[in-house]
Amino acid sequence: MSDLYRTALAELGAVMDRIDDTAVDEACRMIAGARRIGTYAGGREGLQIKGFAMRLFHLGCDVGVVGDMTMPALEEGDLFVVSVGPGEISTALALMGVAKRDGAKILFVTAQPGGRCAELADFVLTVPAQTMADDRGASATSVLPMGSLYEGALFVLFEVMVLKLRDVMAVSPETMRSNHTNME
Questions:
Q1: Cα gap 80→105, rounded to integer Å
Q2: What residues are labeled active site?
Q3: pTM of the predicted model, to two decimals?
């Protein structure tokens, strides 16, 4: 394995070492207790949140992704899971405002919890990784470009959350597999 691979893996490991597992457990409780779940993230984070939504579907959750035609309306008893690594974007603010107005709880995942999005959230799960907001000059520490360290950490975090949720929700691996599409 080349040094680039080792460095990238070490950086991801360092991020995972700094995640508060108690906060992850609370986020899992919110997801497990939700009637319906909506998800949103932009850009490459959006790819990670779509993968997470797919796994939540495999767990048997009623889940949608903002922008898909099957995204349900969110209201009381529902949960909106939003990821914005740099802490704030206008689209997330607008969508979080709608979810909050209509009674849904908000789980906000970010690397930078000091912004208006975090203020709207019912719970903030911090992933302490470099994003595009801090990838230049002296603050740039990752070998990975732009927000890739945050995005890679999201993938690992979401898969670990699925394992935790599988236990909390008492869903077997066989049930998850049976929920996988046969239309591919």
A1: 6
A2: 151
A3: 0.95
